[in-house]
Amino acid sequence: MTDHSNRWLDLFLVTRIAAATVAAILLLATDTPDTALLVSLCLGYCAVSCLAFARLPALQYAPAAWMIDAVAGFGLILVAGNWRSPFYLFAITSLILPATALGFRKAVAWGGAFSLSYFVVGLLTTLEPNTVDSAVRLETVTTRVLTPLMVAVALAYAQRLLNRLSEERERSERLAVQAERQRIAWELHDSAKQRVHAAHLVLTMVRDRVQDTDRALLDQALGELGAATGDMQTSVAELRTPIDGRPLGEIVAQRARELGAVTPADIRVQGRAPILPPLVAAHATRIAGEALTNAVRHAEAQHISVKLGGSRKTLHITVRDDGCGLPDELRPGSNGLRSMRERAATIGGTLEVEHAEGGGTVVALKVPLTPVSQEVA
What we know:
elongated, Heat Shock Protein 90, 5 strands, five-stranded mixed beta sheet
């Protein structure tokens, strides 16, 4: 699920700065003895809270931080000594982050608790219990008390819609990627692979008719065709493996088990990858699979390790083997490394292929990610 935290953080910052500015202007217009103190508290806390939430992303999902922020807003109202003070809008801005990070029901409950707390703050200041005697004043109180709840409901519903739109977009991307993978698999199996088979048969038939001096070249050509057939079989199998929203680690582990069943190499997959968009997951899976295949088939490695890691902002994949290492010259028709680098570039990542200390090869993929949401339980 795509994260909209940056969007909500921007809304929080803009509305908080605007609310603090309006409150300061209104306070200066009244020119009371406590005006300077109240304006200083308002602008000072506005600056501190905005910097804290902007510089420390973890605070955007921390209930304790939301609670402190709301209490600070209520504290400004109490210091002002008037439930209708200019700090009312300032306090409401503290609802933006919890209402968009919690689930819908919890966000509504948070908004209800905020409204109730504001009513209590009103009773502690200038809100009189006999307000019900005046229809106009009762309407004013009711509007002010229920507004925070309505704000929380609106924000939570907007977040819910955005999440559904993101899920649908990711589903569409996943289906499109899977359809393209299936089309390529069909073309490889029904066209390219059959032509390679045919070429292999023709060369095999004429092998015994050529002179001994040319037979070595013919054997080399047959070997290349056999390797090409193996590469295509691997590609077709990987392309037909559905992405279907599974975690990257699960897909890579499955590929490791498939290779482990047909090779004596010890293949281990460690770590956990963050949640990935479908397009990134497809290319990352293919890169990791290609690196494993190269280590098994070409490097003849005995031990292969795959380490997955990253954060909300970055994906890391490292494939290390103890094989024969990178050749000085790539074999003719070898497009594996170039394809891996092109795939990495397609998703905005970088791919480094280096000799490992003590022998072998290290393939390291790094991909920047759009942050993934962390809905608070």
